[in-house]
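May I ask for whichever protein you like with its backbone structure tokens?
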Amino acid sequence: MASLFTGKVLLTNRTRDEVETDREHWRALENRILLLYFGSGLCPRCRRFSALLRDFHLRLTDEFYVERAAQVAVVYVARDGSEEQHEAFLRRMPRRWLAVPFGDPLGRELELRFSISEVPAVVVLKPNGDVIVGNAVEEIQSLGPACFPNWQEAAELIDRNFLLAEDFEDWTWRSITDPIRRLKYKVEKKTETKERVEEGEGSP
């Protein structure tokens, strides 16, 4: 995915820092499902959807909702009227979002590449750059974070967040090592309990 931005510049949200190098792009985007969000702070429909997308992203990545962040990244591609509007919009969005700099030709290149004719639009991409969904706005509106596992399956990502079958009823995101850790804990706990019982039986 980082290859999509090779030689380009992305901005980190709420700062003037630039993510310039290919290595930094790789670290921010590699092995993640990428959401290219085409929007504008001037568009009423975009403002309503942006609040929804913000919540969507937080529920997949914020530790308040999940134990480990999902493999997803958002890059905002603006149709804002000015750099001030662009910055004002980003200040209301999650810190993990990246953005194409205001006025950068890359924004127009991405619009043409993915045939964006209206906003809001969200193009969902596999880590290799293949399109999963041409415009996921309606899907996000109707399903919320529940649509992410479908994208994850389509992208054939290594799932870092699976559960043992016994835990499906109480569903929550977990790391790939969590079942192993919990199984080890159960074994250790049983061993510890057995030792205590044996010590109790052997005492006078």
